[in-house]
Amino acid sequence: MKNFFLLLLIWLFVVSCTKYEDGPLFTFRSKTKRLCKTWKYEAIIYTEQGITITTNLPNLKMLFENNGKYSDNNGYAGEWKFKGDVELEITKNKQGDSIQVIVWEITRLANKELWLRSNKIEHHFVAE
Questions:
Q1: Candidate CATH numbers 3.40.50.880, 3.40.710.10, 3.40.50.300, 2.40.128.280; the one for domain 2-127
Q2: Which of 43, 46, 92, 121 could disulfide-pair with 76, CB 3.0 to 4.6 Å?
Q3: What is the spatial distance between Cα 14 and Cα 26, in angstroms, rounded to a whole number?
């Protein structure tokens, strides 16, 4: 019986460690280490309509660097930062364009998966 309660406490601790809605449940890597790489689209999910798109996705590839720099293959460059526990803010512009600030809700940040939500639309990315 003692072992059961010990296992229950350990399980509750592990479950409470996750910050993101869809996990991961537990990780030894910091969120910066998990984010800093190149990401490409895997799916777009319109949650209210229940529609998942996995073909003809945007050709967007996003690069997040350890020093807070952001760039993508559409010619945008700028900076990124975490806001609180579950938000990712990207400030970017193209040469000569106005600055864009995009705030995403992170729903999953695993080593090879990044799920972002904005306006009830989920954007799923995989590490390249």
A1: 2.40.128.280
A2: 92
A3: 6
Return the bridge partners of 71, or none. Answer: 63, 77
Asked if residues 39 and 128 have their Cβ atoms less than 8 Å apart, the reply is: yes
What is the pLDDT at residue 14?
47
Amino acid at 94: K
Q: What are the residue ranges of helices labelled H in the chain?
A: 2-17, 31-35
pLDDT in tens, 30-76: 889 999 999 999 999 999 999 999 999 999 999 999 999 999 999 99
DSSP state of 99: P
Residue type, 6: L
- Asked if 105 contacts 116 with a C-beta cutoff of 8 angstroms, the reply is yes
CA distance 50 to 66: 35
Q: The whole model's pTM is what?
A: 0.80
